[in-house]
Amino acid sequence: MITFKKLSVRITLVISFFALLVAGVGSAVSYTDTLRQERNKAYARIMELAKTVEKSAQIAAYLDNQEIADDVIGGLMNNEVVAGVLLKSQSGWHSTNDHKPLNDALGEAPLALDLDSPFSPGEKVGVLQIFPKHDVIERNAKLIARNQALLLSSYTLIVALIIMLAIQQIFVRTIKTVASTLNRIDPSGTKRLHCPLSHRKDEIGHLIADINFLLDISHFRIHSERELREQLEKLEQRFRLLFENASVGICVLNEHGDVILHNPVCREVLRLDAAPEGPARVEQFFKDARQINRIVFDTLTAGELTNGEFELATTDDLDGPRWAQCLFSKARVSETSEFEGSAFVQMIVIDITERKIEELQTRFKAERDPLTKLFNRNGLETRLNLMRDLALQEACGFAIFLMDLDNFKPINDNYGHEAGDTVLIAVAERLLACFRANDILVRLGGDEFLAALICKPAINQADLSRIAQKTIRLLLQDIPLNQGRNANIGVSIGICASGPEHAHLSIAQLIDHADKAMYQVKLAGKNDFCISVPSPMRGDRSTS
């Protein structure tokens, strides 16, 4: 079965096509050109024949001699391609071979030869007209042209056949042998192609040499790849041993913050199993998602190494708060890696929930009053400075309430310290109801309390007065004690209200202003408040 996929078939078809095309075009051109040449040759021969009898024709025309004219006409009529001859003189005399053949040929254009005088050259004495047999000339010309075209076509086809056989013998058969041998060669083996002696220095020899060179390279690379694969398998085993069995969580994030790789510890700490379907984004596992996104972005762009403790997002209402210590670093990608040009962040995660809870409990105990659970003096100045800095940044007001309970000492004296503790706890609860959650409430010691808050957008003494009045009103209400008894106390409040223009004053100076305002209340009869607004430069101004 002939298949067009074989090289030998395609070469045969191509050569055959072009051979037929060349033969056809060449035959057509040869036929046309030969036909034209043969026509011209026939007419040229007739004119040459006329030249041979030109002298006799000149004499016959000059003398109007019929006998000489008949000899001229008879000689010309002996040619098979001459249909008729007409000899005319200037005097009107003429002679022809036969009127009927002449009449038959009159429709065709004659060949004319002007006749000069035999005695006076240049003097015209007549004309010799020869009427060719055009059909005979055409038939002979076509025959010769056809034979010439057939001969050329035969030569072309024979040459094409010889070329085809030569190509098959020299090129195609060798290529088929090389291809067949190459198909049986194992690239990982040492067997190579044999180059015939006749092709050592030609293109086929170079092709076989190149193929053998590629086989040598393939043999080397196959063995190198096997060695690399063995090394990669060992490295992969070590990587899995380190990655899967690591005591800390390890994960890799892409430039969008998606978790693309993680180990079991990371999955347990971040609780990846509870994540919704689809790509898990690192931000969804932390309470402050915006902070995590900023850290990932900074790590990718600036290559910063970030280490911190972050609260994790809770996935269960029964689950308490959880914390993790995380180290963010930009992953290095090898230039030869398939991930070249990509950016990754490596995150190491350690669950520190137990330590964090213990730390918070320890800090709570250190910073909180054990009786009222309000802040104590520890770290007071630091907290107040942070709040005041925030107020200055936002161009807001800052106020300090210094509160001292009235009539508290008699409760301790009359009902004991247990009753005094009950009153202090109730006072703390009522103060929490008077101030906002983000305000600072501190028990300075004994029956003295402090509150700090930010006034937005600026100092508003009317708002401060309402807070102070509410505080006084709530603390004036009876506080139930044991055995059906009630305690009644009051409070003296000194308030220091400051703004950005008081940035030169320290926290200690602001507290001192509040303390002086409270002292004025004590002197005025207690159970009231006084607002002190420090001067932007020197001196004080107080209102109540």
Question: Would you mind describing this structure in some detail?
Answer:
Helices cover 51% and strands 20% of the residues. The chain is of the alpha+beta class and 544 residues long. The strands form four sheets. Strands 11-12-10-15-16-17 form a six-stranded mixed sheet. It has a five-stranded antiparallel sheet with strand order 6-5-9-8-7. It is elongated. The two termini are 117 Å apart. The relative contact order is 0.05.
How many strands in all? 17
- How many DSSP H or I helices? 14
Q: What's the Cα radius of gyration?
A: 62 Å
Strand composition percent: 15-25%
Largest sheet: 6 strands, mixed
Overall pLDDT metric: 84
Low-confidence stretches: 539-544
Q: What is the helix content?
A: 40-55%
Side by side, the strands of the main sheet go 11-12-10-15-16-17
Shape: elongated
Instruction: Tell me the structural class.
Output: alpha+beta
Gap between N and C termini: 117 Å
Keywords:
544 residues, alpha+beta, 6-stranded mixed β-sheet, 5-stranded antiparallel β-sheet, 17 strands, 51% helix, 20% strand, elongated, disordered C terminus
Question: What's this, in brief?
Answer:
This protein has about 550 residues and is of the alpha+beta class. About 50% of the residues lie in helices and about 20% in strands. It starts with 6 loop residues before the first helix and ends with a strand.
